[in-house]
Amino acid sequence: MAHTIQLNTKPPVEIHQAHWQRIILLIVLAYEGLGCLLGGMLLVIASDGRLMDMPVDLMHGAFPDFIVPGIILFALGILNAIAFIAVLRKNSADWLLAAMAMGGLLIWFWVEIAILSELHWLHAMWGIPVVLGAMMVIPMIPIKAWQQTLLISGILASLLYAAINVIVAMQWPVYNVASQTVSELSAINAPTRMLWIVLCTPYTLLMMAFSWGVVKAAHSNRRLRVTGVLLLAYSALGIFWPFAPMHLREVLAAGGSTFSDTIHLTLGAVTEVIYFIALGFAAAALGKQFRIYSIATLVVLCIFGALTFIDAPNVSKNLPTPFIGIWERINIGVFLLWVIVLAVILLRKKHLAEEAQHIL
User: Fold this and answer.
1) 9, 216, 292, 351: which has the highest count of C-beta atoms within 10 A?
2) pLDDT under 50 in the chain at which residues?
3) For residue 286, how many other CB atoms are within 10 A of its CB?
């Protein structure tokens, strides 16, 4: 009886990382891994930070001592060590472990800068290699995983921005979520300005990644491609927000609007127009259910946008605005939810398309 031998003909994952890129990544993983292991160990041994000449006061009350940060840092060191071994042995999951290691360190530095509310030369010494290592990981990521990651970035961006609104507001004891605008959290001389800018930087990057993911997911759908381009423009404008802050309402009432205030309002108007157009193209590009949902989103945005606009003049006059924060945050929540829904639909459509192609 003849036996048929079935061979595994599935092609291996194609990796486009050059040899020199892998070497750089290995150096970064070793450098950061050793630093994390040593630093984490010293922080745990001496939780008051004396062995690293770091007083606890640096954390501004975020942690009572360095035990928890030390444990986290040591765990990042272990992750970098595991990623180093995987990359060295060219394991099939090396790209994932390396991405987790570099991503974990990026988050570490991001949170650290937010807590310290300042930049230090050590951030450049340890942070720049992480950025370089992250760039070396990008060619390793499989195309399928890369496209899915871009779309998932939209979900992460929305969840992050919602969390930022809660976290930053909690750091300003006299700030009133109901009666004060979101822009006041990043206003000139606001105690939360630096924290807001630091925390929002990843949001802008995630939204730009998501927008590019929408463009790549469009294929022959021209309306969806236009949606992605418009969302990319909308996201890119976020780079300019830190350079055009508003003044606190007390300052506006005393001296009137400045050039910075005008630019801030102009940016707000331009981004809103771009988003409304993107919403329209997306509604026309996808199915009937999403079209109805987008129309409902537009109606809600118009209603609460009008309520916000009515109260806006009172901000510059330092008059009571008891609900402007609520109206504005409803609009923000509706937008963030729309982004999540769009990302889920595109991820689902891609999944269904891959299933259909597999069946055929």
Assistant:
1) 216
2) 1-14, 352, 355-360
3) 20
Q: Please give the residue range of the domain that contains residue 98.
A: 16-141
Gap between the terminal Cα atoms of the chain: 32
**Per-residue pLDDT tens over the stretch 109-119:** 888 887 777 77
Contact (CB, 8 A) for 110 and 75:
no
Contact between residue 108 and residue 76 where contact means Cβ atoms under 8 Å apart: yes
Domain count, the chain: 2
Quote the pLDDT of residue 351: 56
Confidence at residue 186, expressed as pLDDT on a 0 to 100 scale: 92
In the block, which residue shows the tokens 């472990």? 97
Distances (CA, A) of 314 to 45, 253, 258, 324: 54, 9, 16, 10
What digits encode the pLDDT tens for the residues 227-241?
999 999 999 999 888
**297 is written with which tokens?**
């989103």
Residue 6 lies in a domain: no
Per-residue confidence (pLDDT) for residue 358, from 0 to 100: 44
Tell whether 192 and 228 lie within a shared domain. Answer: yes
Is 2 domain-assigned? no
CA gap 350, 144 in Å, rounded: 10
Bridge-partner residues for 188, per DSSP? 247
**Residue 175 sits in the same domain as residue 278:** yes
Residue 164 and residue 110 in contact, taking contact as beta carbons nearer than 8 Å = no
Residue 226 has phi, psi (to 5 degrees) of -65, -40
